C-alpha cells in the first residue's frame, strides 16, 4: 500500500533531481516555486543528506545566530543564519534557529537535521525516498536514470548527491586505515597515540574531539594547515577546532606535521607510518595505536564519467560552467555541495562558500531560475528601478544582501539599463557569467575580500560590451550607504543615473 | 588526475626540470588543481586578485583587448607578471578547450619562488625568452 502512495513514480519528467540533502531539497523547492514539474528521488529514507549522520562530533561549524542584527525571518537575517534553507513564505524561513536550544550558536547535528526535516514538511516537498539511482544513459530525448524503482526519462538531470563518498589518497597501506566516517566512539581511543591524516576541518574536528581521550595526537599531511582567520575562508580550518593547533604551537605535546606519507604498515598493536617532511626536509618513522584518514570526500558520480562528465580535483569533482552545468555534458546540472566545482573568480585564492549550505542554497535559487528560463522559457517578471533610486538600491543590496555576503566574489546582483525597458533588477547570477558572457549595458555589485582581509563592495560595469572592475572603499562596520559610496557609484554610472 | 600523475607530468615541464621527486611532490600538494571548459576565462584583463597557473593539459589563448596575441599549452605558466608587479593582468587567458591547471594563490607566489631558486631562475629565463620573442629585447 505504501508503495502505491510514493510520489514521483518512474516515467518521463521535465526535470529529475537526485538527492534529498539540503541541496536537493532547496533545488526542488525553488523549481516548484517557478512552476517547473520535476521528480525528486533519493536513496535515503528521509530528508537531511549528510546531516543525518555527520559531523562525527555532532556539532556544526556553521552558525545560526539566535540574536542577530536583523529580524528573524527577514532576507537580511539569512546573512546571520547559515544553516536554514531559503523559503519565500514566513513559515518556511529561519527554521534551524527556531529548533536550536540556545546553548551554542552552532547547531547540533540533530538540530540541523530537524531543521531540514521541518523545511521539507512545511513546504510540502515531495520526494520519492528509498529510490536508488543505479545508472545513467542517454537516449534520443535526453537521459535515462535507472533506479531501484525503475527508469526516469528527462532532458534535465540535476545531481545533488553531495560530497558523500569517503575519499583517500593513493598511499600504500592506507586501505587498512579507517576513514573519518568509520571513526569509533572517542572513548575507544583512550590513552592511545593517534595519527590523523589530514589538516582540514575534518582532521581538526577529530583532533579536537580526541583531546580529552588520546595520549598524543599527531596530525599530518603535506600542506601546512590553513587557518580560516588568516586565509579569510571557511574552507580553511575553522576557529572552533583550533585547540589542537594551539596545543601544537605552545608545545603542549600534540603535534602538527607537514609530511608526505610514503606508506603505512600494520604492526602488532597498531600502525607504522613512514613519512617525509615537506616544509622541513627529513624522514620520519612513527608508531601509532590508531590512524584515521580525515582525507575528505568525493562526489559519487556513478557512471556519469562514462557519459563524458569531466572531473578534476583528483577526480573528485565534476568540471562545471558558471551555472553549474557539466562543462562537457549539457543537460546535466549539479546542486548542493558539488557546486564548489564551479570555481568562479576565486579572487586572492579565496573559494566560494558553495561547499556549505549558506553558499549553495543561493546557487540552487539561481540554478532553478536558469533552468526555468533556458529549458522551459519561463522568465520571472523582474522589478524596475527608478533612475533616482539606482544608487541607493545597489548600496542597500551591498549592505544587507545575504546572498552577496555569503557568496563573496561569486554571486552578484545585476541591474540592466536599456533605452526601451528602462532599468531592471535582474536578480542574482554568478559573477563569472556576468563578466565573461556578452550582454546589454548593466552593472553587477558584489562583496569581496582582498588579500589584506579588507571586505568591500565591488562594481562591475558593462558598457558597450566591455566590463570594468571598480573596487569601492571598505567601511569599518560594513555600512556602505554613505555619502562617499553614493558619490562614487553615481560617478561610475554616469549617464545612466 | 591523481597526485602521482600530476607529479609525473610536472617532471616533464622545463619550469620544474631541476627539481627532485620530493620537491615535485611538494608542488603537487602546494598547488590546487582547477579545470576550465572551452571559452571560460582564467585570467581577466584589468581584474584584481588573480593567481599563478601552470597548464597540465589543454590550450589557452592570450588575448589583449580581445585580440589573440599568443597561445599557451601544457607546461606553460601565466599570472606571475600580475602578481610580481602587483598589477591586474594585462591580458585575458581563455580556455580553448578543456583546460586543466595547477594554481597557486597570489599571496603565496613570492614566498614559494624564494623557497625554490631553481624554479625562479627557470621562470626568469622563460620571461627573457618571451621578451625576446616580443621584439623588445636585443638579440
Notes on the structure:
The complex is a heterodimer of chains A (497) and B (139). Chain A is built from twelve helices and 23 strands. Chain A is of the alpha/beta class and 497 residues long. Chain A has three domains: 10-164 and 298-376, FAD/NAD(P)-binding domain, CATH 3.50.50.60; 174-295, FAD/NAD(P)-binding domain; 387-492, no CATH class. In chain A, the strands form six sheets. In chain A, strands 13-12-11-10-9-14 form a six-stranded mixed β-sheet. In chain A, strands 20-19-21-22-23 form a five-stranded antiparallel β-sheet. In chain A, strand 11 (255-266) and strand 12 form a beta hairpin. In chain A, helix 2 (22-33) packs parallel to helix 8 (357-376). Chain A is globular. With 139 residues, chain B is of the alpha+beta class. Chain B has one domain (3-126): Jelly Rolls, CATH 2.60.120. Chain B is 35% helix and 27% strand. Chain B has five helices and eight strands, in the order ααββββββαββαα. Chain B has helices spanning 3-11, 21-30, 80-84, 109-115, 117-133, and strands at 32-36, 41-43, 52-57, 60-64, 67-72, 77-78, 92-95, 99-104. In chain B, helix 1 (3-11) crosses helix 2 (21-30). The mean pLDDT of chain B is 92. Classes of the chains: A alpha/beta (497), B alpha+beta (139). The A-B interface holds A 169-170, 221-223, 260, 276, 278, 281, 310-315, 319-321, 327-328, 341, 343, 345-349, 409, 432, 435-436, 448, 450-451, 468-469, 471 and B 1-4, 22, 25-26, 29-30, 32-41, 44, 46-51, 88, 98, 100, 103-108.
Amino acid at each position: 500500500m505504501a508503495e502505491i502512495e510514493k510520489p514521483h513514480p518512474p516515467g518521463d519528467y521535465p526535470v529529475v533531481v537526485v538527492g534529498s540533502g539540503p541541496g536537493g531539497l532547496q533545488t526542488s523547492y525553488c523549481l516548484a516555486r517557478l512552476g517547473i514539474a520535476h521528480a525528486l528521488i533519493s536513496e535515503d529514507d528521509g530528508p537531511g543528506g549528510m546531516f543525518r549522520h555527520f559531523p562525527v562530533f555532532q556539532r556544526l561549524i556553521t552558525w545560526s545566530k539566535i540574536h542577530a542584527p536583523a529580524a528573524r525571518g527577514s532576507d537580511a537575517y539569512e546573512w546571520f543564519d547559515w544553516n536554514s534553507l531559503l523559503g519565500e513564505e514566513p513559515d518556511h524561513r529561519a527554521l534551524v534557529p527556531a529548533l536550536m536550544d540556545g546553548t551554542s550558536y552552532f547547531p547540533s547535528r540533530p538540530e540541523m537535521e530537524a531543521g531540514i526535516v521541518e523545511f521539507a514538511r512545511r513546504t510540502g516537498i515531495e520526494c520519492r525516498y528509498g529510490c536508488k539511482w543505479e545508472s545513467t544513459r542517454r537516449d534520443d530525448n535526453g537521459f535515462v536514470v535507472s533506479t531501484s524503482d525503475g527508469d526516469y526519462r528527462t532532458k534535465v538531470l540535476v545531481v545533488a548527491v553531495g560530497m558523500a563518498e569517503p575519499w583517500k589518497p593513493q598511499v600504500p597501506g592506507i586501505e587498512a586505515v579507517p576513514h573519518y566516517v568509520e571513526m569509533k566512539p572517542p572513548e575507544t581511543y583512550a590513552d592511545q597515540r593517534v595519527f590523523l591524516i589530514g589538516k582540514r576541518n575534518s582532521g581538526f574536528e577529530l583532533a579536537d574531539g580526541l583531546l580529552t581521550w588520546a595520549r598524543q595526537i599527531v596530525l599530518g599531511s603535506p600542506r601546512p594547515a590553513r587557518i580560516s582567520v588568516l586565509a579569510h575562508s571557511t574552507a580553511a580550518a575553522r576557529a572552533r577546532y583550533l585547540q589542537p593547533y594551539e596545543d601544537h604551537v605552545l608545545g603542549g605535546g600534540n603535534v602538527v606535521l607537514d609530511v608526505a606519507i610514503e606508506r603505512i604498515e600494520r604492526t602488532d598493536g597498531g600502525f607504522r607510518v613512514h613519512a617525509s617532511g615537506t616544509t622541513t626536509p627529513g624522514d620520519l618513522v612513527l608508531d601509532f595505536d590508531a590512524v584515521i584518514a580525515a582525507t575528505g570526500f568525493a562526489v559519487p558520480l556513478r557512471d556519469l564519467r562514462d557519459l563524458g562528465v569531466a572531473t578534476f580535483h583528483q577526480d573528485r569533482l565534476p568540471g562545471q560552467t558558471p551555472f553549474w552545468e557539466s562543462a562537457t555534458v549539457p543537460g546535466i546540472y549539479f546542486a548542493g555541495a558539488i557546486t564548489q566545482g564551479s570555481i568562479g573568480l576565486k579572487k586572492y585564492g579565496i573559494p566560494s562558500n558553495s561547499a556549505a549550505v549558506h553558499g549553495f542554497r543561493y546557487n540552487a535559487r539561481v540554478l532553478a531560475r536558469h533552468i526555468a528560463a533556458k529549458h522551459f522559457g519561463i522568465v520571472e517578471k523582474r522589478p524596475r528601478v527608478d533612475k533616482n533610486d539606482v544608487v541607493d538600491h545597489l548600496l542597500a543590496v551591498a549592505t544587507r544582501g545575504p546572498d552577496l555576503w555569503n557568496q563573496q566574489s561569486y554571486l552578484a546582483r545585476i541591474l540592466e539599463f536599456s533605452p526601451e525597458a528602462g532599468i531592471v533588477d535582474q536578480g542574482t547570477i554568478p559573477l563569472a557569467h556576468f563578466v565573461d558572457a556578452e550582454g546589454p549595458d548593466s552593472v553587477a555589485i558584489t562583496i569581496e575580500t582582498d588579500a589584506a582581509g579588507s571586505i568591500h563592495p565591488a562594481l562591475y560595469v558593462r558598457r558597450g560590451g566591455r566590463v570594468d572592475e571598480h573596487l569601492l572603499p571598505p567601511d569599518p562596520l560594513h555600512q556602505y550607504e554613505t555619502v562617499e559610496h553614493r558619490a562614487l557609484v553615481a560617478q561610475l554610472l554616469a549617464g545612466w543615473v | 588526475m591523481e597526485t602521482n600523475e600530476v607529479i609525473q607530468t610536472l617532471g616533464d615541464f622545463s619550469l620544474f626540470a631541476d627539481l627532485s621527486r620530493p620537491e615535485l611532490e611538494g608542488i603537487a600538494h602546494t598547488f590546487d588543481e582547477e579545470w576550465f571548459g572551452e571559452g571560460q576565462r582564467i585570467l581577466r584583463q584589468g581584474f584584481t586578485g588573480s593567481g599563478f597557473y601552470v597548464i597540465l593539459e589543454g590550450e589557452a589563448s592570450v588575448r589583449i583587448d580581445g585580440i589573440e596575441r599568443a597561445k599557451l599549452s601544457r607546461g606553460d605558466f601565466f599570472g606571475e607578471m600580475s602578481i610580481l608587479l602587483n598589477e591586474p593582468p594585462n591580458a585575458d587567458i581563455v580556455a580553448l578547450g578543456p583546460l586543466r591547471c595547477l594554481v597557486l594563490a597570489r599571496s603565496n607566489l613570492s614566498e614559494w619562488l624564494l623557497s625554490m631558486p631553481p624554479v625562479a631562475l627557470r621562470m626568469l629565463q622563460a620571461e627573457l625568452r618571451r621578451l625576446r620573442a616580443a621584439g623588445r629585447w636585443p638579440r
